[in-house]
Amino acid sequence: MASTLEFISRRSPIVCTGGCVASSQPLATGIGLDILKRGGNAADAAVAVAAALNDTEPTSTGIGGDCFCLFYKAENKKVYGLNGSGRCPRALSLQVLKQQGFDQENPVPPTHVHNVTVPGAAAAWADTVDLFGSKKLTLAEILQPAIELAESGFPVSEISAFLWNDSANKLQTPNNKYGTDLLVNGQAPCHGQLFRNPSLANTFKALSELGKKGFYEGKIAQAIVELVHNNGGLLDLNDLSSHVTEKVQPICTTYKGIKVWEIPPNSQGITVLMALNILENFNIKEMGHNSADYLHVTCEALKLSVSDSHWYCADPAVAPIPTEDLLSKVYGARQASHINLKRASEANTHGSPFNTGSDTVYFTVVDAYGNACSFINSNYQDFGTGLVPEGCGFTLQNRGKNFSLLPGHPNCLLPGKRPFHTIIPALATTADTEDLLCSFGVMGGFMQPQGHVQVVLNMAEFGMNPQLAVDAPRFFVEYDNKDKKWHLYLEEGIACDVVEDLKMRGHVVHWPVTGHDRKLFGRGQIISNGEWWRTGHIPMKNGRVWWAGSDPRADGCAMGYCVV
Fold it and tell me: Which listed CATH number (1.10.246.130, 3.40.50.300, 3.40.50.620, 3.30.365.10) goes with 252-358+423-553?
């Protein structure tokens, strides 16, 4: 099946002067653009897109999951962050899991109800509009297009249909009575088939009419808790009603005059910044794009940063995170010194930074005022747990799968704790003036920081425009706990001689990855302010032009309009 998805088209970057939206679904992109044309700003449109994607791509995203938001405010050139991730049930603990036979060596299965954490998306959608929105549109007006899409129906796109069918078994289990709400005659909808979800429309209406209470209290909350309890879970009404979105200070580092912004832990965004600090010590441009030297060094840098983040990245409210030390340029240089240019490393151990002196949707929106919203929303693994609360039309996430069950680990499961989170939105600004350079992201589990690094290097080092930057073949490196080896996956398009060179250096290489299997490399979106990737070119103060690219590994597109 993987070989049936051909990559035979090309795209030019979208260029426009007004607002712009880039997402993994054309219908969602269009809805976001309509919100901008009605007077909404980037934050308003982002929430409209988030809701529409719940309609069109329910395998990857939804109101039963979590989200993160970065907002660039053009007026003061500041970057703001929202952590929309939920917490572990207060009644769930390592002791409870141990009594049920689960521990680090025998973890909770991915779709088990114990992996359901409080869904944070609904609150974060409302808070994004409240904190950053234009105030010209209400939350009800912003959600209305997604409500209409769910009620009237839409034709399912190609890649969505493939993913839907691939994970439909989660919706068809006997303990998931309402899983059929996301099926057609008990089966996943086909490419081009109309799909309606009136139950999801009613969920959006409750959020529209009652605000956050419409989701975290009352009928929806009761349906969530009843479903969890019927499957042996411990989430309760108090867990839901006490949930709050957290305003966070975004973290950043500079890479050759570019300031890259990420959400702080419990998000894995810090992985991107650590890798860039390491890579700044090498002449990346001289190596050549996707050469053996480039892929080797970038892969080795990511091994180091991924190993660190898998240990240190956790809920900072519970586990102290040495963020400042991890992001130190001194630590980055020290980590760079560990890279052997001729040999792949085998270790998967975290460093010591002290005293150094997943499935998801990503989308981005900019508006005519120069604001940008970088937004990511996820169920985690396809459909999450797959469990559908009665009358709600969405699945519950399985984000708790990312907890460690090792006592003493910074990310070990504790009551009321947020888990390590894979989803990461990003922004880039100029290091000196804080002018917006681009809003970008690459979804896809543990691929996400690796995608961010590759996209930044594609633009900053190799002068690629936003569309070329997401088109370019990617790599993904992953540690296999079973065979205790790092595995390097290379997308079709990387040269055969490069592959052989990497094998000679000791990399365990899987190549070429083609067709639907390309989902391993994530799906990205970029909107850029001007042509900053060209040497010496800075964003224009007047006559701004947005440049946008949308990943060919998804069904989506970028769209924009011009100021009249």
Answer: 1.10.246.130
